[in-house]
Every structure is written in C-alpha cells, then in structure tokens.
Design goal:
Structural class: mainly alpha
Number of strands: 0
Largest sheet: none
Strand content: under 5%
Radius of gyration: 22 Å
CATH class of the largest domain: Mainly Alpha
Shape: globular
Number of domains: 2
CATH superfamily of the largest domain: M75 peptidase, HXXE motif
Distance between the termini: 12 Å
Helix content: 55-70%
Order of helices and strands: HHHHHHHHHHHHH
CATH topology of the largest domain: A middle domain of Talin 1
Length: 338
C-alpha cells in the first residue's frame, strides 16, 4: 500500500529535538543494516510473551502502588476536609489514574477491569444530589445499605454511565463536589463520606485482582502473542486516541485531565517501540523509512501533549492531524504483514 500520509508542517520549537531523534534513528538504521535483522526479529518474536508479561506486570504493580497512596489521601481528606487535603487528594488521583492508563494499554477492550476501574463518562446524578434534583443518587437512597456488595450490584446496573466504581467516581468527588458536601453531620453527608471510602477501597481491590491475574501461569493468554498482534493492537489504540482527542475534555472532565490521559497513552505507545519486545526493530525490518516517519510523528505529538492540561486551537488541530497520520502509518504496516 502506498504511503498517503498528509504533509505535516513541523513546529519550530521541535526542530532541534527532532533532528537529534533523526540522527539517532539513522544511527540505528546503520547498525541494523550491518546486523542479522532476521535473527533479531526471531529472537523478539520468541520472547515476546515473556517480555510483554513482565512489561505488563511491572506497570500493573506500579499502578497498584499509586492507588494505595490514593486511598491514604482519600482517608486524610475525609478525616480533615479542607483545601490542602483536597489538593493532595486531587494530585494523588491524577498520578494514580495516569499509572492505570499505562498499565491498561495492553489489556483487551473486553477486560472487566476497564469497566470496574476506568468507566467513563459517568452520570453524577446516579451517585448524588444535583442542583435541580436534591434527593437523587445512591447517597440519598437511605434505605439502600452502602457496602462493597451494593456498589458492585449497582455499578452499570441499567446504563454504562451509571458508575458506582472506579477512578471517575472518585474524580467527581475529589474535583467537582463543593467542600461543604463532606463537612456536615447529617446522614447524607455521612453516607457521602462512606461512599467515597468504599469506592477507594474497591478500586484497590480491582487493581490487586489485575495484578494477581498477571502472575498466573496463563497470564500471557490475553496479551499480543506476536509482533503482528502487537502491531494490530497499536493500530487499534491509535484509532481510539484519535477519537479521544476529537472529544477533548470528555475523559477526565471534572479534573481537566483529558490531555494528560492522552499523553499517558502516547508515552506507553512510544515505550513499546523502544522496550521489549522491541517493536521499533521489527518495523525497521519491514520498512526503514516508514518506521522512521512513524516514530517521528509519535515523538512530535508526544511533545505537544506532554505536561499539558489544555491545547490551543492550533495545537489541538495539529495533534489530530498527527494522530491521523500515525493511524495511517500503522494501517500500512498492518497491510504489509497480513
């Protein structure tokens, strides 16, 4: 398939960094030309399940450590709800959520963990009162006992937006609800604090389940079994990233972390190029020039979105164009191997 990638005007602030990356790529290509690339590809292919399982487990364990810190921050906030403890809770949420997005990158879309841990968007009225509906939500269902079993029974009970578990329930309470929602002595305020505690605890429970599953003997069953499978998955993820960028603000709407979420996934995609199973070398073997082009596109959109909470209009448009080009490049690679 011919490469139909659109022409992309480069940002001046990226020229120096991109030239350094280009020099690095050219050096890698020269080394590759002098080595037995077929043997390198065979080695990577044979070791891919083991490499990916180790890669996945390390990120799942890192995410579990961060959600443990998030629970501690939640408890500290509920013990003493004030601006400082809320800010600490918000920071812990952002760090833990980004760690989860990296850990979840290789998990199949059908994995239950996605629904339990990172279901979005959510419906706040399913959880709590709204200005025009002061008695709505689980918090105000005083006849409904709040415990772990109830939350799991109620989670997504009639609609995918009716979340009672996961990061985005915590996000809503950490970023959106007014501080006085947590300081009252009435039964509703007490149930709200109870709900927040339960959601944090169940989030850790679900993280631990993911980690335990990755330690089983069949842990590689749901991971890409070959370089081709990994390439197909990255192509699928690039489509999702384009869609998410096109809906900027939807994922992490209460915390304003939509761009951070995209950046975390892009960082993971770039990491899979460099780290085991060595997808970069596999792509170079297939088409050196196109591999370099893909990596440079990925580096540029990473640079635009890194450590950002918002993008201006030109940056958002540029990011969409780059993500579209990345998707087309990956589609071309998939066509080469299928």
């Amino acid at each position: 398939m011919a490469n139909t990638q659109p022409a992309l005007r480069q940002s001046p602030r990226l020229n120096s960094a991109r030239w350094m990356q280009r020099i690095g790529w050219l050096a890698l290509l020269l080394i590759s030309a002098c080595s037995d690339t077929d043997q390198a590809s065979i080695y990577n292919e044979r070791n891919q399940p083991t490499n990916l399982a180790a890669w996945q487990l390390s990120r799942a364990e890192a995410a579990t450590a961060e959600v443990t810190r998030l629970i501690n921050a939640t408890r500290a906030f509920l013990d003493n709800p004030n601006d400082a403890s809320r800010q600490s809770l918000q920071q812990a949420w952002q760090t833990a959520h980004a760690a989860w997005l990296k850990a979840a990158f290789l998990l199949p879309d059908t994995a239950e963990a996605h629904n339990n841990i990172d279901r979005w968007p959510i419906e706040p009225g399913f959880l709590d009162s709204l200005p025009n509906y002061p008695s709505s939500g689980l918090v105000n269902e005083l006849m409904l006992e709040l415990d772990a079993e109830t939350l799991r029974d109620q989670h997504l009970i009639t609609d995918t937006s009716e979340a009672a578990l996961g990061y985005h329930v915590l996000e809503y309470y950490a970023f959106e609800r007014p501080l006085e929602s947590f300081t009252g002595t009435d039964s509703t305020s007490q149930r709200r604090r109870q709900l927040l505690t339960l959601v944090a605890e169940q989030l850790l429970h679900d993280h631990l389940e993911v980690t335990r599953a990755l330690k089983r003997e069949d842990a590689t069953a749901d991971l890409p079994a070959s370089q081709v499978d990994l390439l197909v998955l990255l192509n699928h993820r690039s489509e999702q990233l384009f869609s998410e960028m096109n809906r900027e603000g939807s994922h992490g709407r209460y915390s304003g972390t939509s761009i951070n979420s995209i950046a975390a996934k892009l960082e993971t995609m770039e990491g899979l190029m460099d780290q085991p199973p060595g997808l970069k070398q596999y792509l170079i073997d297939l088409n050196p020039a196109q591999a370099e082009s893909l990596y440079m596109l990925l580096a540029e959109v990473r640079e635009i979105t890194r450590d950002r909470t918002t993008l201006d209009e030109s940056e958002a448009s540029r990011s969409l164009l780059l993500l579209s080009a990345i998707n087309h490049q990956l589609e071309d690679f998939v066509a080469l191997v299928r």
